[in-house]
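Take just one protein record:
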Amino acid sequence: MAEIELLERIVDDLDFVKKKVIEIEENIEEINIDLHYAKPEYIEKLENIKKEGTISSSEFENKFGVKV
């Protein structure tokens, strides 16, 4: 009888661990989504910047009046 009780406890413990792993995976997925979320308007601004290309620091200073 002791072996059956031990096996039942092991099964219960494994079920508990399985549930916790699933919870952790869900939490990690939520965190990942939060960390990698970008507002559509930010993506649009980045695409516009890509289209315009880069400028040198002197061009930046002339255009915006700010020293880099």
Observations:
- The CA atoms of residues 60 and 66 lie 7 Å apart.
- Helices lie at 2-36, 40-52, 57-64.
- The mean pLDDT is 86.
- Residues 2-36 form the longest helix (35 residues).
